[in-house]
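Bug report

Summary: structure tokens for NIPSNAP protein differ between web form and batch submission.
Environment: batch mode, default settings.
Steps: 1) Submit the sequence below via batch. 2) Compare with the web form result.

Sequence submitted:
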Amino acid sequence: MIVEMRIYHCAPTRLPALLERFSTTTLGFFEKYGIRQIGFWTTLIGPDNHALTYLLEWESLAEREQKWNAFQADPDWIAKRSATEAERPIVERIENQFLTPTAFSALR
């Protein structure tokens, strides 16, 4: 198992728009492409309260490449994402890391 941690740093005041897009649109596309989420978090206390952090579970990097690329190339996704940003951008920057569990991790 590989866990991908993604952090979306939003433009000021745009976190609610990102949360809305995930709950009403993005998660449907994740389901369509078999992208498995572990969870989503916003920052309660920390240096950036305009961020969404989430974890995805992959069997392999090959699975991630195939499913993520198909999702990103989906014309319906591209159109819906563009519509949510017609007024102004939502995300300023994205960070991602690929994590692998240790032998003593509860999640493996």
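Above is the batch result. After comparison, the two runs are identical; trailing whitespace caused the diff. Residues 15-33 form the longest helix (19 residues). The chain has a mean pLDDT of 96.
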